[in-house]
Amino acid sequence: MALVLRRVPSLAKRGSKFPQIIQLSFPVPCQTQHSFSTSSSSDPLLKKLLQTPTSKITSTLDSDHSFNLKSSQLPWDPLVTDLRSSSPEKAHLVLEWRLRRMLDDDEMDRDEYSRLISLCGKIQNVSLAMHVFTSMEARGIKPTTSVFNSLLYACLLSSNAITAISLFEIMENSESYQPNSETYDNFVAGFSNLRDVNKMQAWFVGKRAAGFSANLQNYECLISGCVKTRDFDTADKLFEEMMSLGIMPSLHIMEWVLEGHCKRGSCDQVKEFLIFLLECKFEINGNMIENVVRLYSDLGKVDEMEMLLEIFMEFNQVGEALLQLHCGIIRFYAIKDRLDDVEFSVGRMMSQGMSFKSPSDVEKVISSYFRQGAYERLDLFLEHIKSYFKLTRSTYDLLVAGYRRVGLMEKLNLVMEEMILAGL
């Protein structure tokens, strides 16, 4: 059987250099079937490979019988993803080893090859993905649309759009592996990650023209891509279009829309959108409020934050978002040395059963007390929070430096004794 990749001559040889229009590493916020979860660092095989010298990775895998390395059920995807973050070369060697074992074992399941190609994409290694594809074909295994999609997406993850488009053309001219909805999804996601809004939207239009319906993943990629490139008006239109089609937005989409409003510096739109989320009972998380607090703080609009806090409490909001808002207000007052407002805000937060989460926020309050020379009030503050918040080494260091600087030796000694008792 003639190899289909002969129609893309530069791709037919392992190790060949592929045309690339952009080279960069990027996260993949737009989820597809090729996106995998990460595993815990407690994975014994991962630990062993991290400790093994690069030169001995292959021999270690060959000789290790404590893991069922031949099994397709072994979680290769989280293993390789986690390994890549520490050593891309080791991740590459593991996948090379996996391919060799599949060939030695005369593996004929095309899904196994497709999964391996996807993993090559996760480590952004198009050459190896192509080698897996041609090895599969050499075994007489015919590719399918799913296999081509895996290969195409591997190219897009590696910023190799030209090769991806060449593969799409091969698919279009075939009878056995015609492009499907996932094929277009991969291009929308890929160009979103590359921040090429025009191509991203063109493939979205192409998907519809081919008779496929838009889905949640498409809108997530489109909206995130527009916000990243500061095309906020298009992001708003896409969000409205998605809602009009009855597609329920994901949390990620809500985060991107809110981030767009924050980047525009529009406090009114931010408040309006948050009220919309509250009224519709959508989740509001800490990351979303962190962006809002940053905007209001940069603009000096603490009254807007106070108003937003009242709205949150009216809607009986609890959890990380409310805590972020409390801490943002306290942080603002502390930086401005408005101690009365700091103390009121701390009391209000704690009356709702919440306490500081970040040592940095506590340290900003402490620094404000020192700047104002309010040492007795500082003592009361520390006494008040100690039951709810464990002071860290950096916080103790700040106290030690502050008391030493102003010559309060008695307080300095007490703090140092506390540090010893705390094992710091």
UniProtKB/TrEMBL annotation:
Organism of derivation: Salix dunnii
PANTHER family named among the record's database cross-references: EXPRESSED PROTEIN (PTHR47874:SF4)
Source organism, top-level taxon: Eukaryota
InterPro entries, sorted: PPR5-like, PPR_rpt, TPR-like_helical_dom_sf
Family: Belongs to the PPR family. P subfamily.
Upper classification of the organism: Eukaryota, Viridiplantae, Streptophyta, Embryophyta, Tracheophyta
Protein name as it appears in the record: Pentacotripeptide-repeat region of PRORP domain-containing protein
Gene Ontology terms for molecular function: mRNA binding
PPR repeats: 109-143, 215-249
Alphabetic keyword roster: Repeat
